Amino acid sequence: MQTLPRFVRFALAITLLAAFQACTPSQQSTTPTQERLRWDAVQADNWALENGWMRGSDFIPSTAINQLEMWQEETFDTATIHRELGYAKGIGFNLIRVYLHHKAWQQDSAGFKDRMEQYLAIASSLGIKTMFVFMDDCWNGKSDIGLQPKPRQGIHNSGWVQDPGQDESADTTYFPILKRYVQDVMTHFADDHRIVLWDLYNEPGNSGKRNGSMPLLKAVFGWARSTSAIQPVTAGVWDANLHDLNVYQLAESDIITFHNYATTGSMQATIDSLKTYGRPLLCSEYMARTNGSTFENILPLLKKEGVSAINWGLVTGKTNTMYAWSDTTHQDGSEPDLWFHDIFRPDGSPYRQAEVDLIKDLCLDK
What we know:
alpha/beta; 11% strand; globular
């Protein structure tokens, strides 16, 4: 089965608003059973005050097709990471969201954590904090350690892989491996202030899994909360139709995060509905030009509302995210007239200078 496009099933603004307001904050105030309780509102607000308005992008170096190619020793590319995070610094970004993968850890846990240390040293030297992502239900359902596939010309995220895979995510006998992974990584970086937030599960329920992702979602929150990590944890809501998952994610997240690839009306409705939870908000995925989600209309709104902002895509490269989710019209490798995601070409030249000028105006400290 083909993976569902990222956020493509997010409802229209009015449906979204009703779905989130159907589970009010008072209905969510359950007592967690994990060792570390969910942060209270004061802790969450203090975190927001400490970090201010954060802005940045989801990031994978242009030389990597997926998380495994980014994190395996043979293809871990510090030169490209440093150069491309420099582009982010240059336009005033101070937060980067980065996906991990448990199979790279499983192959070489000490080396994996060392490479995370190298990445964090680079990002921190540029004044950039990091939001790491553990689980992910998006795109290809099978993955293998070693040489990764070449990109399919003109196809968005042709090589991106779920973590864990389609079958493994529902196999509770596989969970002990994932538990060791999450707890080892979080324990190693438990008091690392370069990490601003742990995103425990990207788009649970995607790829047709729906409530089938609930056992792993609940498990990963428990594993995370049983560590001594000082950073907050979250799992972003992304599809208003996934009611049960949304209820759990909103009840358990220390900081409310969400995805929205739609226009200003939908974004405003999402913000208004999620503000009722009384938590800091962070939009961890937005900006899809052909959907009407652009820097011009969304970034000023997020800044005005005090919502930290992470767009999808920094530098176009092997992930092919300049192409839209379902675009099959550029399989000759030609460039689309209107890029879907991404800001820069690999050489650092912007796709649109006017966009970069706007981002700088909104994001660079004056």
